[in-house]
Amino acid sequence: MSANSLPEGAAVWHSLEVNKALDLLDSNADSGLTSQDIQQRLQQYGPNELEETAGRSAWEILLDQFKNIMLLMLIGVALISGFLDLMRLQSGNLKPGEVPFKDTIAILAIVILNGILGYVQESRAEKALAALKKMTSPLVRVFRDARLVEIAAKELVPGDVMQLEAGMQIAADGRLIEESNLQVRESALTGEAEAVNKQATLKLPEETDLGDRLNIVFQGTEVVQGRAKVLVTNTGMTTELGKIATMLQSVESEPTPLQQRMTQLGNVLVTGSLILVAIVVAGGVIKDGGFKNIQELLEVSLSMAVAVVPEGLPAVITVTLALGTQRMVRQNALIRKLPAVETLGSVTTICSDKTGTLTQNKMVVQSVSTNDKTFCVTGEGYAPTGDFQLDGQKISLEELPEISALSVASAVCNDSVLQKEQGEWAILGDPTEGALLTLAGKAGIEKDQWNSKLTRVAEFPFSSERKRMSVISQVQEVATGEASSRGVDPAIAAFLQSEPYLMFTKGSPELTLGRSTQIHLGNHTAPLTEKQRQKILVENDQMASKGLRVLGFAYKPLAQIPPEGSDEVFEQDLVWLGLVGMLDAPRPEVRLAVQECRDAGIRPVMITGDHQLTARAIATDLGIAQEGDRLLTGQELQRMSDQELEQNVDLVSIYARVSPEHKLRIVQALQRRGRFVAMTGDGVNDAPALKQADIGIAMGITGTDVSKEASDMVLLDDNFATIVSATKEGRVVYTNIRRFIKYILGSNIGEVLTIASAPLIGLGGVPLTPLQILWMNLVTDGLPALALAVEPPEPDVMKRPPFSPRESIFARGLGSYIIRIGIIFAIITIALMWWAYQHTHAAGYQGDREAWKTMVFTTLCIAQMGHAIAIRSNNRLTIEMNPFSNIFVLAAVVVTTILQLMLVYVPPLRDFFGTHYLNMHELGVCIGFSALMFVWIELEKIFLRIMGKKAV
Fold first, then answer.
1. Cα(609)–Cα(326) distance, rounded to whole angstroms?
2. Candidates 353, 682, 694, 718; catalytic one
3. Is 167 helix (H, G, I), strand (E, B) or coil?
4. What is the pLDDT of residues 232-261, one digit of tens each?
5. H or E element, residue 89
6. 353: annotated active-site residue
7. pTM of the model
8. What percent of the chain has pLDDT over 70?
């Protein structure tokens, strides 16, 4: 067969015999490929590398920041302002001490700062593919031209024959030719924590799930034990790792709800500003009967354009999100992408892994069955403290020697170690065996003590074919408690007559029971009847139906140590001890978190690679699903079209035995249904789904670098409850963003209307310069807005459904509030402006006739302070609130007021900002008019309370 006709894809390899696979790839199990074959196939398939598509360059990201419509308008304003200053400079019309181009420089500085701010947020390159590439092995051993050689992994081609040994990282996907006790850790790829026992001789059905392809090895996984010879079937982007890389690169990043809302806000503000500018210029031209005052009209237009753009808003939002990330880190949620803080508040569906996130990732024995009775076992984690209960009542172990006997078997037939580290009980070894040691500890059986009573002398190790293990121990004499008396420990005295050895066996309940002919009852043994056998099998099925992992235990007294390899002879005629059922127990705090999700209108969904019975048991226990709710398996999902999945995705809360492609499809189906999805994951296989999700959440403890790089958020404690806490914080952040947008834009509209009215009511000149407006938008608005950003949460923040992520920034009355308050702002300021103009132009006035402009400037600034104090709550009056519950608002009001007065009374600042000295009478009038703003907002609250309406 020629290389040109090699089969494409990996779907068939696990369903082929080894010889058939070798024939299809025209390879030889002993000699491998020839040099000629290798060159030919390298040309056809290319190097064994993950290919990266080109992304945006740093320059492109930076230039994109200046395509923002508000920044473009500010750039236009800066250029026109510079042109007008240049004309005045050339005509000699500058006032004494006036600095030319200061407005232009100030505006362009703001534009550049906002551009840099956006660039820093967006320029964090996606490093998921780089992390994926690290998983590929640099060197590999292959058979070529009948010789074993070491080559660079990128030179591998389909048809190569690899040699694998313990500790090696696998460099390509391949079909096993032969193996010896091969175990491969595939957790990064499949999510399954335990190492997989591989078997070369198997021929599997085509639809076999990825995690069950026991005759295939995958690129990026690690050989834990044994050795093997492997036929390379897929390289580069056709490997399972390559498919993940393809999916990662095909997922396009969508703008977050906050980014969409800010774009909408910019469009509305700029459009409204341009319309208003056109009206003012047209009105001025008509009023003057020509263009004789066009320069003055242009200056008014420039001031209006600067006034409408909230220059401080991007910085305030960035700081707000940064403060949110700090609060979240304290709750064990690390935010990798700043906008994700607010995005969390919009989540409607949380898709969570089971192991380690919803559960403790610690196997815990839940149930023990012996002598026709089933006992419940209490306790959490690996701590050897808990009770044995029968029908809800605690029982004494002295009355039930069968439990002590079963606990001895659990401790002795065990290769793990239970120890206490820094106050926490931990396990060294297999989690299943750790659960058995904990069970024994609860029965007062400690492994260390029993190692001296039953000294291990031989064993029949566990294998996937045997599905059991046996330990042979020599019985040692110990003090029995009677004076000067030594003998066998009473807990095992009933096991023996005069035999010096005991064999304990544990494994598959059906197989272990099938080799048992007697049963241990109390302190004696009896023949195992068919009725008892059937009852044990029924109990096994009942435990398994609850999602428990069930093991059967038996023992046998021996007169001699069995020779190696004699397990089939000696593991017969066993004495049955009982069943032990264990579970990766749910985290205790998750039940409350799931309930909090439901109260908040968020739907939790479990997506796991585990068995459906286990998945249903955990999901039902936690409240994620109810009895009888629909469960979807990976195989069922595979047969569904995207349209069918979309129709069912809102009805399914449990997905079991799923693969990475399934996770991605589930997320996409939910998103097509309009859901806003948070997805958790820890393996390489989860990266595409994490990137596709609106919020990708990686595990900080068990997560791979690839999953972390593809995520928006990392759970430092791998705990579902942390997601709920972070979601609450996201809602608080969004509420505070809306609060300070109300605050900032209300004043901006007041500024615009005030500036526009000056020429229309016949006042000479522009009341505010662009520099003064920048001061208001950055300092007067900015500092209190930052203080409002740390306003504590409302009591009902997690007692309402999430707001739609697609709602307008002006939704739920925000737009009408901004316009209403802006108009009130303008009316108050225009009334003050009219009075101030008449006052400063009255006969006998001693001050500067331009001081009316400074009175307008000061009134607008101080009125905002009253606005900041009143807006802290939508419904409660200021006198009803604790003024120190947000000390930052009080501090911001005091500091901003002092800074504003410095602009009026400190000569260098007065000269730079173009303000004029105000006497105490004039300052008092400004403060009086400013206070009206605070009074109005408080009266609005009283009115809405009387009318029984809730404020925005």
1. 33
2. 353
3. coil
4. 999 988 998 888 888 777 776 677 788 788
5. helix 69-91
6. yes
7. 0.74
8. 93
